[in-house]
Amino acid sequence: MWTNWSGGQRCRPVATARPLDEAGVAGVIRRAAQRGQTVRPVGAGHGFSDLAVTDGVHLDCSAFSGITGVSATAGGSAATVRVRGGTTVGELQEALAERGLALPVPLDVGAPTLGGALAVGAHGSASTVGSIAEQVIALRLVDGRGEVRDVPRADLDAARTALGALGVVLDAELLVVPAAPITVTRAQRPVDEVLDPAFWEAHDLAEAALFPSSGTALARWAGAAEGEEPERGVGVTSAGATGRTALGGAVVVERALPRLAPSLNRVVSRLARTVSATGAGHRVLSDPPAVRYEQAEWAVPRELLVPSLRDLLPRLADGLETGLPVRMRVGPAERGWLHPAYGRDTGWVAVRIPRGTDPGPVLARTAAVLRAHGGRPHWGTRHDFDAVDVAAAYPRSADFGRVRDDYDPDRVFTNPALSRLLGD
Ligand SMILES: Cc1cc2nc3c(=O)[nH]c(=O)nc-3n(C[C@H](O)[C@H](O)[C@H](O)COP(=O)(O)OP(=O)(O)OC[C@H]3O[C@@H](n4cnc5c(N)ncnc54)[C@H](O)[C@@H]3O)c2cc1C
After folding, report:
1. How far apart, in whole angstroms, are the C-alpha atoms of residue 141 and residue 152?
2. Which end of the chain, N or C, is less surrounded by CB atoms within 10 Å?
């Protein structure tokens, strides 16, 4: 039995293959196709959605890890690295740091693999610099016929965020930047301050955590706190050590007594003290979860980020408040045809439901509100989109379908999620 990180997705693949080389990957796909079986690549199982769920063959890419090449771009202001698809984001960020390099936008979670992060368009929170998928300048995969393909430029915007529908990503060439320490500050802020677009314009890298019924948000941004001497090399988690312990405890109490959630959350949101730290972005932003949870994240047009939250927060405060805050982030328009931020500057709204609490009502209300604000779901989180929604929300979805017909004509990579989202 395979289970994802949150425990919300389970399946019994007919087999799990862990090939050690490209020929091995191609062989797994060809054999499965000959047997009429389907194949789903699987990374670290950190997706909340059912994209990796299959009763066919699970192709575990974890043996495919590491950086296989580094080259300076013209002028030396950036570089590119060739990274294998099974490399975790954490391994990648550490390996880059050892070479004096960094991802343009650090990710605060290390477990997802590059293949998994690309498949769903995993993102951080910077208003002008895009996700890992946006940094892809070349990509190699094994397609549905078991052929190794260097994805041509014409197909790259389809392949950079492909839900695992075009093939198994072997490696990708990414744009990276010279490493430079950043100072991250976390502090309490009035909710009205983080719901003011000026807050996001003032910080290129920022995010906020908001409890639906608390007037206090926990904000994190790149830049030193006034007059504070930043601590060196420690993580500045969104809730802080005390806040995290309180969060964990509050979640247990709220599961038993949900009506206490609003008052407990108000207390928790006021516990986090102001702190700053300086160091490598992925280290100072590292934010390991205090508890396991289910998540729905939606991408709305940037200009609708604040109106969507002004709509959502009271709707969640009305009997659906959980012990975990709503997370607010931003990102620029992306080129990936199926990336949730395709073609528009974006605001991200993530709602989390602690394990043990029925996620259904919160997921349904969140989807209803954010759909009304033009929302597109993060493919790695829980949502209710189907093929009709995809066709309506993604102007290049038909073009993606044509590329899919070329890379996987016999739908070797299909599963119930892809059938629902992309049709067969
Ligand atoms: C605690 C936690 C924190 C998170 N934080 C963030 C965050 O800050 N930002 C964000 O955007 N997301 C975040 N996520 C979501 C996560 O990044 C995505 O769900 C990501 O897809 C997980 O990668 P994975 O390797 O675990 O992939 P899986 O969950 O194993 O697979 C996800 C998809 O990728 C496909 N896939 C996997 N490997 C390959 C490959 N080699 N080739 C082709 N397709 C492949 C699978 O078929 C599936 O469709 C978080 C998740 C968790 C659990």
Report:
1. 11
2. N
